[in-house]
Each structure stands twice: as structure tokens, then as C-alpha cells.
Amino acid sequence: MKYDIAIIGSGPGGYVAAIRCAQLKMKTALIEKYSTLGGTCLNVGCIPSKALLDSSEHFHAASHSFAEHGIGVQGLKLDWDKMRARKDKVVLDTCKGVEYLMKKNKIDVFNGHATFQGAETIRINTTGGGHSEISARNVIIATGSKPADLPFAKIDKQKIISSTEALSLRSVPKELVIVGAGVIGCEMGSVFARLGTRVRIIEYLTTVIPTMDGALGKELQKSLKNLGVEFYLGHKVKSVDTKGKKVTVIAENSAGEEAAIPGDYCLMAVGRKPYTENLGLDSVKVTTDARGFIQVNENLESGHPGIYAIGDVIGGAMLAHKSEEEGVFVAERLAGQKPHINYRAIPWVVYTWPEVAGVGYSEEELKSSGRGYKVGSFPYRALGRARAAQETEGLIKVLADKETDEILGVHMFGARAADMIAEAVVAMEFRASAEDIARISHAHPTFTEAMKEACLAATENRALHM
């Protein structure tokens, strides 16, 4: 079977690339190792974690804040099995949606492990021991990533677990130790803290969500502490003991003081590593760096002409929407178009509640670069809509060029930040100034008024409501 393009991996980058290729009249094949489409994101990542995040937030709200709204809840109890079942149905429905899109766009789907047999030939080994071969003029590698661990503490899926296992635990743990205070660690920590678990997070660095603006890390840490989450920042994990019924993590601070932290499980959230194993890359001129990421040029093409790579497997921001943009980029390049990706305008989101979102430069980056900038911020507590919704925890921070007023970065912590960051992305893509956004009418009362007010604050410090 001959194709214009074959795509290895059906995560958001892979299946979106397949759809765009099919729209551009290419005969397209999509190869997926597992029995369901959607990759890590849909099956064991973004979608199931957000389902549990939402369910746990409803439970926590019913337990702690409904009474203030005049809503009495008697006999409230947690049904973990039903909560997990709802999560599983959300995953199933989403994956079925991807299957439908493949059929709608006439994309041939192959289930099995793909291995290069040369530049244009791919062998597909099925779980039953059979195999088939297809040929393609172009190939996109979109195999994604998998959870990383520590050399002395490998994920055993029993006591040392990844987010994959955490999403399907048979019961809510009494104690959970999380290694890593990044996005995954904070999201999963918030889920179980809301459900009554004693959560302790260990982080080697001295800040929470260290890849984002420092103000957001401080706000999120404070918020999670209010949920009961305990932090061991600036601590290095020395060992993880899995003997006995409990797991014990030994961590050491900068002064050399050790802490023994027990839990029912140790959740490894120390990042992810690219999945490039057993793809037959050595049979083609596709090289990886020391960490295993496939090396590509500005067109996302590997060292072998016609073989491209996108998403987590090439590094950078390991985000589903970044992978999607790269999939569309390659498809349109192959069709002779001139697409462009502004990586600086790809937003980050942490789906705790309140949510965290950011795009563009952080204040720390601007300081280190020496670029002149100005700051405008606005607190949620000054918003009428936030008070009405009892969501006064949060702020929006806008960074703008000191001379031109161009928006350089926007950072949000608060209710609905995941959705509101889109306005900031649009503003940055069109190189808007803070004054541009400040002069745009924002509906009242809404949370988005905080964006307008923060831009006003960055424009001659003239916020109206503070």
C-alpha cells in the first residue's frame, strides 16, 4: 500500500496532522501502537486528568463552599468508583470521536508498532504476531513521550507510580508523596488533596511550576497550601524505600538536613522523556540528541529528507496544542503553503482550581535579558463578578515593553484563566499594545475585566477599579 504520507502516533499532534493532510488531498495513513487512538493525552493524560480535576473540585466545593451559597448538603460522601467510571466514559467518548474523524476524512488507520525498514517503507507489527508493510513518500514521527523517573527510583507501577497509574488507583490513598512540583505534580496533588489525601510534594528547585512566571508559582503554592498540600522545596530526593506497606522518600535540603516522608504511593512527576525506542531510526538518517529527542530543522524535518517529527518527541514545550500546531505546520508545508508557528505565543495552563495560565515572556526572562518593561496587575478580589461567584482568589499580570507598550507576556492565576488566556494569545499574535486591550470594551460583570484593568495598570498605572 502506497501513501502520500504516513504518521506514526495518534496523539493530538499525530491525528490532527492526519486530518490536515487529508484535507489537503493527501492519501494518509495513521499508525498507532495501542488499540485506541488519541495517544497519552486522550487516554492517560490531559482528558482523564481534567475529568478528575473537575469531579474533585465539585466534591470540594460541596464540602466547603456550598453552605455560603445557601445550599445545604446532607450525607455528602465520595463515590470514588463512580468518579473513576465517569472519567473512563469521558475518555472513551473522546477516543471514539477521534475514530469518527479518521473515518470522516478517509484516513487509513493501522494498529501496531511501526518500524522503519528504509526511507519509505514502514513495517507494522501487530500484537498478535502478524505484520504488514506500507510505503509513504513522507513520514511524520509523532510518537510522543512517556513519564520519566529517577535512576534509583524506577516506576514500578505498584508503589512508585506515574500519573497514568494515579488516574486509576482503586481507592483514594491516605497519604501521597509527589516528586516534582511542575504541572503534573500540582494537578494530581490538587485532585487527591481535595478528596482528603495528605499530599506532600518534593521539589528540587525552590519554586512551584518553575517554568512559569514566578508570581504564578507563589500564588499557586499558597492556594495548594490552603488545600492542605505540604511542600518540601529545595529538596533533593536521595532514595525511595518501597519495603513494607508504605513507601518512604528520603529528601535532603540545601543545609544537608534529611526528611523521611512516608506515603501509600510515591508519584513520580519529574518530567517526561521522548518515545523513540524501536522505531528503526538507525535505518534512516534520523538522529537524536543526548536526551533522545529527534533533531529537526526549522521545517521540522529530520536529517533524512521526507521524514519529519513533531510534538513531545522533538522537545520544547510538551503541550498537546503545541503538537497540533506542528502537525498542521508540516502538512501545510508539504502542500506548498507557508505556515508559521510563533512558539512564544503558545500558552501554558495548569488545571488546578483556581487555574494558572501564561503566555509570552516571564518577568524573570525579561529581567535576565535586560529588556526594558513595565508591569500592570489586577487582583480578582476587585472584580464584581469574582465576588458574586465567590472566586476572589487570583490576579492577572501584564508585561509590556517600556518604550513601545507592546504586550510581551500575560500571566494569570484565578478562575477560568485557562479560557481567558486566549485573549492574551490573540493580542500577542497581533502585537497589540497594553493600551490597545485597555481601550477594548469588556463585558461587565465578567472575569475578563481583570485583563482590561491589568492593561490599564500597565498603561500609565491607570486601573479604574483599584
Describe this structure in words.
- The protein has 13 helices and 22 strands.
- The protein has 466 residues and is an alpha/beta fold.
- It folds into 3 domains: 2-145 and 273-343, FAD/NAD(P)-binding domain (3-Layer(bba) Sandwich), CATH 3.50.50; 160-270, FAD/NAD(P)-binding domain, CATH 3.50.50.60; 354-458, Enolase-like, domain 1 (2-Layer Sandwich), CATH 3.30.390.
- The strands form 5 sheets. Strands 1, 2, 3, 4, 5, 6 and 17 form a 7-stranded mixed sheet that branches.
- The protein is globular.
- The mean pLDDT is 97.
Shape: globular
Low-confidence stretches: none
Radius of gyration equals: 23 Å
Q: Bin the helical content.
A: 25-40%
* Span of the ends, CA to CA: 66 Å
Structural class: alpha/beta
Question: The CATH topology of the largest domain is what?
Answer: FAD/NAD(P)-binding domain
Mean residue pLDDT = 97
CATH H-level homologous superfamily name of the largest domain: FAD/NAD(P)-binding domain
Q: Tell me how many strands there are.
A: 22
**Helical segment tally?**
13
